[in-house]
Amino acid sequence: MAQAPPMALHEFWPGNRAPREHRKVVRYALQARVVFSWVDRDGVTQQGQGCTRDISTRGAYVHCSGWPHQGASIAMSIYIPLLMEEGRFLRIQTEGCVMRVEPAIGVVGECGGFSVQTDRVTEFADERVVR
């Protein structure tokens, strides 16, 4: 039996048009440790940690096991390792708003995540891990 030719991407989308990219900045794939805090809907300060999936000058996507609600204001510290010197990293502190939350869906060991749009960078620091 002959197989049908593969469909073009635009044939899958409503109106036969491929989705447009709406991002205004380039995202870079980067895995860096993140520590974050937010105030939950009950007014209690929460903390979490995770790892970035990608990062840009306007935001990041963070993989984690516990996350803030959509619309939450968030403070984050992102720790980017410096490639040439073990134990040193660039710490970027930023504040922003959670734009999207994606819980893990039925996969054991899988964690969800969230995207954050940053409003401002509050500090850059070159730091060394003391052992």
Structure commentary:
The protein is mainly β and 131 residues long. It has one domain (25-128): Beta Barrel (Thrombin, subunit H). 0% of the residues lie in helices and 51% in strands. The protein has a six-stranded antiparallel barrel with strand order 2-3-4-7-6-5. The protein is globular. The termini are far apart. Residues 3-14 have low confidence and may be disordered.
Global mean pLDDT: 81
- Uncertain spans, ≥5 residues at pLDDT below 50? 3-14
CATH superfamily: predicted glycosyltransferase like domains
Number of domains: 1
CATH topology: Thrombin, subunit H
Anisotropy-based shape: globular
User: Into which percentage range does the β-strand content fall?
Assistant: over 45%
Count of alpha/pi helices: 0
The percent of residues in helical segments reads under 10%
- Placed side by side, the strands forming the largest sheet appear as 2-3-4-7-6-5
> What's the gyration radius in Å?
19 Å
| Termini separation | 65 Å
> Which CATH top level class fits?
Mainly Beta
Count all strands and give the number: 7
| Biggest sheet features | 6 strands, antiparallel, barrel
Element-level helix/strand string: EEEEEEE
Given the helix and strand composition, which structural class is it? mainly beta
CATH architecture assignment name: Beta Barrel
